[in-house]
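pls design
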C-alpha cells in the first residue's frame, strides 16, 4: 500500500501532489456507476501496472494519465521508486 501522503508526479506537466489529492480528483471525475465501480484507489500498487491500466486525472493540468505514466517521488523506498514511470507521448495530428 502507498501512503496517502506520498508525492506523485504527473508525466505530462511534472506537477507533484499527494496521493490523496490524486485519488479524490480522479474519483470525483467518475461520471457514472460503472466508472466508480471500476475505480482503483491510487494507494494500491496495482494502480501503476502497465498490463492492466487504470486512469487518474492530474489535479494541475486535468489530463488523464494511466497509472503507469505517473511516478512516486520524494521517497527513499526503492520499491516505490520503480512503480510507473512509463513515458508519455502526444501525437501531432496536424502533420
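designed seq:
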Amino acid at each position: 500500500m502507498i501512503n496517502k501522503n506520498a508525492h506523485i508526479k504527473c508525466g505530462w506537466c511534472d506537477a507533484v501532489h499527494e496521493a490523496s489529492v490524486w485519488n479524490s480528483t480522479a474519483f470525483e471525475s467518475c461520471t457514472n456507476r460503472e466508472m466508480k465501480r471500476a475505480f482503483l484507489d491510487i494507494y494500491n500498487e496495482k494502480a501503476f501496472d502497465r498490463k492492466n491500466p487504470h486512469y487518474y486525472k492530474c489535479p494541475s493540468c486535468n489530463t488523464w494519465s494511466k497509472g503507469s505514466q505517473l511516478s512516486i517521488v520524494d521517497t527513499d523506498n526503492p520499491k516505490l521508486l520503480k512503480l510507473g514511470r512509463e513515458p508519455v507521448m502526444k501525437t501531432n495530428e496536424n502533420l
